[in-house]
Hints:
This protein is an all-alpha fold. The chain is built from 9 helices and 2 strands, in the order H-E-E-H-H-H-H-H-H-H-H. The protein has helices at 8-28, 42-70, 74-107, 116-141, 143-147, 173-177, 183-188, 192-220, 223-226; strands at 36-37, 40-41. The protein has a two-stranded antiparallel ribbon. Helix 1 (8-28) packs antiparallel against helix 8. The radius of gyration is 19 Å and the shape is globular. The two termini are 29 Å apart. 29% of the residues are buried.
Amino acid sequence: MKAIFHHQIWHLLAILLLVGGLQIMVTHFGLISDGVLWGLETRVWFWLAILIPIMHQIYVWLVWRLELYQQTFTSRYGLSKAFKGYAIGFSLLFIGRLVLVIVLALSDANTLPLPPLVATLLAVIIAIPVIYLFYSVKKYFTLERAFGMDHFDRNYSRKKFERRGIFQYTDNAMYIFGLMALYLPGLLFLSQLALIAALFNHLYIWIHYYCTELPDMQEIYSQTEFTSLTKP
């Protein structure tokens, strides 16, 4: 149990600081608009867009750690069924993050004081590394590994870290570029709240990295293979 909760006190403190700071910021600067979409106020969509990444990362932490240290799921259901069940939950929550940011952007549209042409140009610039990342994941890294198969199949501990595609430039491409996709709805619909929610997602994924994935990688992989992963 100690290993399962390793660094999670820091995870809890960090998320409390992030959410508290977010509440103060949007309240102090009056950033919550009076929009309504599908019968729900923009305020509700905003906090739902903040809640789902928290649910997602808690889900990943709990499943990863239970499987890594106790083989909770593979011992009962086998590798294939255990990973498939986890991957379905992961996918639904990840898609939910994007969907809620899009819905929030629609509810809060045209609140960003930025010329549409500039916002569109920024969206195109951001989209380039995002597309390259997903191409690199599909061609080289594989979705299974991106989902965390190495927590389920310890044979992955013998695999080399991927150095092709976008991964030749940084070991943490998933964290640096993957969540950048969430900025696109805010830019395209000129929504400041959607951009704030995207920024929250991006900051929170790094909390997940340092509090959950980094310690897990130290457990799964050899120190020689792992040393470069301590750097963004």
